[in-house]
Amino acid sequence: MSTLALLVVLLLVLVGLLLASGIAYVVHRNPAWAPPIGAALAAVTLMVTVVAVITAH
Questions:
Q1: What is the pLDDT of residues 32-53, one digit of tens each?
Q2: How far apart are the first and last CA of the chain?
Q3: Which of 19, 20, 25, 53 falls 20 to 30 Å from 34 in CA-CA distance?
Q4: 54 vs 11: CA distance, rounded Å
Q5: Nearby residues of 26 by Cβ (< 8 Å), 6 or more positions away
Q6: In this structure, what DSSP letter does residue 31 have?
Q7: Alpha carbon distance 49, 16 (integer Å)
Q8: Which residues fall within 8 angstroms of residue 37, CB to CB, at 6 or more apart?
Q9: Nearest-angstrom CA–CA distance, 9 and 17
């Protein structure tokens, strides 16, 4: 992998951690939002998985 690709992966990991910690904070402050946020994250996870499978071929 090139250096640019590694930097992009590092950036995506850092942004993902930032978003995950933000979502954890929101759920901690408003526990009633946990089911909708969980459903949204499940949908995003499914979409990312489908895109990864398609691009892997």
A1: 999 999 999 998 999 889 888 8
A2: 19
A3: 53
A4: 23
A5: 33, 37
A6: G
A7: 15
A8: 23, 26, 27
A9: 12
What residue type is 10 in one-letter code? Answer: L
Say what the pTM is.
0.68
Is 27 within 8 Å of 33 (Cβ atoms)?
A: yes
Length of the chain: 57
Whole-number Å distance between alpha carbons of 13 and 52: 16
Q: What is the pLDDT of residues 5-34, one digit of tens each?
A: 889 888 888 998 898 889 999 999 999 999
Residue 1: both structure tokens together: 């992998």
Tokens coding 29: 């402050």
In the structure encoding, which two tokens stand for residue 44, read together?
A: 């995003």
